[in-house]
Design a protein that fits this description.
Layout (H helix, E strand, L loop, with lengths): L6 E2 L4 E6 L2 E6 L1 H7 L2 E5 L6 E2 L4 E7 L3 E5 L4 E6 L2 H4 L3 H4 L8 E4 L3 H6 L3 H10 L1
Antiparallel strand pairs: 1-2, 2-3, 3-9, 4-6, 5-8, 6-7, 8-9
Length: 126
């Protein structure tokens, strides 16, 4: 259910390295808690963000939630497909439902994020 090759935050974002960039999205748990996603507000490309800073927003039939930067870095790409198909977050949160990509990240922060095992343990504590 939770990929092993990405890192997780306590706010349920995931981040994984792909072709030299870092892809960010929300976890399976987060999309289940939100319910049907109806709108996604994506960050501005080129924006420098700090870890834990709100950078995007997801709206669903249940709630609106911020997506936080999992690490400090620069937003270099956004998933424009989400503008027309926000439900991709529900259907494929680790694939076609990714939110944005980052570069120039703080790799020490990245290494300190939870791996799959730690994240699953964290979820059980909630």
């Amino acid at each position: 259910m939770y990929p092993e090759d990405v890192r997780y935050t306590e706010n349920h974002e995931w981040i994984g390295e792909e072709d030299g960039l870092y892809v960010v999205g929300i976890s399976e748990y987060a999309q289940e808690q939100l319910g049907d996603v109806t709108y996604v507000e994506l960050p501005e490309i080129g924006r420098h963000v700090r870890q834990k800073e709100p950078v995007a927003q997801v709206e669903s039939v249940k709630a609106a939630e911020d997506i936080y930067a999992p690490v400090t870095g620069v937003i270099v790409e956004v998933n424009e497909a989400l503008e027309g198909e926000p439900e991709l977050i529900n259907l494929d949160p680790y694939g076609r439902g990714w939110c944005f990509k980052m570069d120039d990240i703080d790799t020490a922060q990245y290494r300190r994020l939870m791996n799959r095992e730690a994240y699953e343990k964290y979820l059980k504590s909630l």
